[in-house]
Every structure is written in C-alpha cells, then in structure tokens.
Design brief:
The complex is a heterodimer of chains A (107) and B (157). Helix content of chain A is 18%, strand content 23%. Chain A is an alpha+beta fold and 107 residues long. Chain A is globular. The chains are: A alpha+beta (107), B alpha/beta (157).
Chain lengths: 107, 157
C-alpha cells in the first residue's frame, strides 16, 4: 500500500533533493528498505555497520515513535506518513569515546 | 556554506543562552537554503529534554547519567522537532540547523557534538561565561562525517 516517507533536510542530498518519497510498504521496515533500495546513499545514514537502525535516528508513524509501537515491524495503513527525525544532541561533558570516532576541531 | 542571520535573531540566541545558564539551551533555525547559502527567517527556542532525564534516557541513552546532565548535555525532543518541521513545511520553510549553548566553555564543538552531528545542518554554538553570552560560532559536519568545519556567519544589516 502506498505510504509517504518524509526526508529531513540533511538527507535530501542523498534522495535527489526530494522532501518526501512515496513507496509501497506494509511495515516500517519495508518502507525504509524501499527508500534505501531507491536511494542507496541513504543507507549509511540510517543504519549502522551491523544493519541496525542507528540510535541517532527516530522514526515516527504519524505522531507515534515506533520505539513505543512495534519498532521496525510496526504495521502501516494506506497513506500513513512516516517521518525520519534526526536526533539532535550535544554538550560539553567529555565523551568516553572521545578521540576514536571522528577527526574534529574539538575542544 | 554560509548562514545568514539578522541582529534580532542573533540576540535571541544570545539571550536564550544567558536565560538558561548554567544549563545548556537549544533551539532550531528555520529558513531557506539556496545552494550553499542558508538564510534564517525564524529562530525557535526549544526545551532541553535533558531536564527530563527519564524520557531523555529512553530516547538517547547517556553513558554516565550521573555525570552528564542538562548542564553539559542537551537533547531536543523529537516530537518538538516533528511539530516544528510540520509547521515550517506548511510555511515553505526548511530546518536549516540548530543552536545550543556551551555554559563556561568555548564556542567550539565538543567530541560529543561531533559524534551526534548530521551533515548539512548548521550547528550554532553560543558560549556563555558566568551567565554572560560571548562568542557565537557555526559549524557544519562534512558529508563523509570526517570533520566539523567552521561555517561563515553573515550578519544581515
């Protein structure tokens, strides 16, 4: 059934600059699989190396966080709107993983 | 990339940083992007979800919640983002980036900021020293996530 996936601004460059994609899917997993099949560059931003959804990625069906539904197996209805919401976090406390993740201009 | 803001917008970020000191404040930048040039049309303050440690921990767990608090961490409620994005889309605006404060810390991204950043977004940081807003900078993560680079801030006259 057709559903709409809203693409956040930082990921549009990997989806031909589209604000949303329409795909056929019965579950959230199918919808995400369909958009990454169409636009392969989205994959590394949504999934980690083990193929799991990254913890910095929030997925909503309508106004509901799929963490509190059936996660990626959450069933979809026709014309459901799925939103990819990037986690926005930061702060000054030293990170335990500092130095091993990124080459940054960091304090 | 460049980020254009006017004085009232810059002042509202500075004032938010001072108001919420010694906690970290956060908010969203809405506007229009034309190629590499982003023009901010609205600055929207949001709440720091680290004030609600239970819910924040459910959404994005911290390694050490005893040491990491709203004074040195921020997290934006994804439901707030969803609401703001919907409203912005309806007005033909996009989310260009986010801002947050560094209480008693320089306006440079921390490792934790880098680890949690997304490409393309502008990350504005306002340093607040003893309650007084100081330097304001903006940063963009490289597309390959390899580095965080300073972004030019254009002050609209």
């Amino acid at each position: 059934m057709p559903v709409k996936v809203i693409i956040p601004t930082p990921l549009r460059q990997y989806a031909e600059k589209k604000e949303w994609l329409e795909v056929e899917a019965r579950t959230v997993a199918e919808a995400l699989s369909a958009i990454t099949a169409q636009h392969g560059d989205l994959r590394k931003h949504l999934y980690n190396d083990e193929g799991k959804l990254r913890s910095f990625v929030n997925i909503y069906v309508g106004d509901e966080d799929i963490r509190f539904l059936q996660k990626e197996q959450t069933p979809l209805k026709e014309n459901d709107v799925i939103s990819i919401v990037p986690s926005i976090a930061g702060g000054t406390a030293p990170s335990r993983r500092a130095g091993q993740v990124l080459r940054c201009i960091c304090s | 990339m460049s980020l254009q803001l006017n004085k009232p917008q810059l002042d509202s970020i500075r004032q938010h940083g001072a108001r919420d000191y010694p906690s970290e404040c956060c908010g969203v930048l809405l506007g229009k992007a034309d190629g590499d040039a982003k023009q901010v049309t609205e600055v929207v303050p949001l709440k720091n979800l680290r004030h609600d440690p239970g819910r924040a921990q459910e959404l994005l767990p911290l390694d050490d919640p005893g040491r990491e608090t709203d004074k040195n961490r921020f997290l934006i409620d994804p439901l707030d983002q969803l609401r703001v994005e919907k409203g912005a889309r309806a007005r033909g605006l996009d989310v260009l980036g986010y801002y947050h404060s560094h209480p008693d810390h320089p306006a440079r991204p921390s490792h934790y900021d880098c680890e949690h950043a997304w490409p393309w977004y502008s990350y504005v940081i306002i340093a607040v020293e003893q309650g007084v807003p100081k330097d304001l900078t903006s940063w963009v993560l490289a597309e390959d996530r390899s580095a965080f680079g300073a972004e030019t801030i254009i002050k609209e006259s």
